[in-house]
# Entry
Amino acid sequence: MNRLFKPTVALLILVSLAGISGCAPATITEALPDTHGFELTPDIEWARPEGHSLTMDIYTPKTGKDKYPVLVIFHGGGWLINDKSPMTSMSEYIARHSEYVICNVNYRLLVDQGNSVTMDQIIEDAMGAVLWVKDHIAAYKGDPSRVMVTGDSAGGHLASMVVLCGRKLESDGFSGPTLGFKPTYLPEGQTAEQVAASGGMDLQAAILSYAAFDIHAAAMGGFEDEGNVFWSFTQSKARGLFGDSINVQEHPEYYQAVSPIFNLPDSSERRLPPHLCTVGSEDNLITPPSVQGFVNLLTENGHQAEYWEHDGRPHAFLDGGRNEFLGTEFERDAIPALERMIRFMDRVMTE
# Structure
């Protein structure tokens, strides 16, 4: 299997700076013309694992419809930094310029809960957020039968894992003899196995923006080491993604279980929803060949997937505000990508 994600210290510094710049993005309320308004319900607590509050913002277009398709967004930041705020401008733009309910989600980071959160738990948060949305989104005029996911960088990885592993749900999660996932939120009265058997995690589309597809390769490349400056930016000690007792050399199956490229089903086994995978032509962390390679794997396995390259753009082009280090700004760099995403969603929702 080709390694699709190869971090280096220099590149991690670049992406860390990108993420930090995005922590307090400028909104676009006055910078862009509106096509219609929206209603924002901020900071809805959707789960509290071990007392850690997880929230989301929900945006409902004001175009007079009784219900709308739904887009769930997961932010980037290397699973170590950021919250949903870098995706605020993206959420506002889509809510104003299309007819989708937007859910901008917070999930746990590795450094949360005393630097003890594991990668499988972060994926379980993403899965739980989707299940919460399906259970509750009708109250915000969302259609629970038409839900899509998206995310950038680490958030793209989470969106991909939600789609790929929504049938690999187990009540004991990663604790049992097999490595399954127990979503942080489950519908009342249902077990993880029942949700999986009923297709409760099934989705209508996925949009993955410069996503990380190979966590095994990332760990082999030093993600868990002090040389990964994400750890120093959080003022936390570098450690294994699954704790100190699990390492990539002796337990590769753990890292492969959370890597999209190791979880692609053949379409004869299970048909995935349509995918749109995007990347900047100048992205040196998640490179265009790595994203094209993942699209090729999808199509080779019989799934519908599209590749779109954003000419001249680096990593993190969807973040709000302006990033002086990368030379990106939302109005110039994100909007062409968002328009491409909206066209993709419109087409999928009418097919």
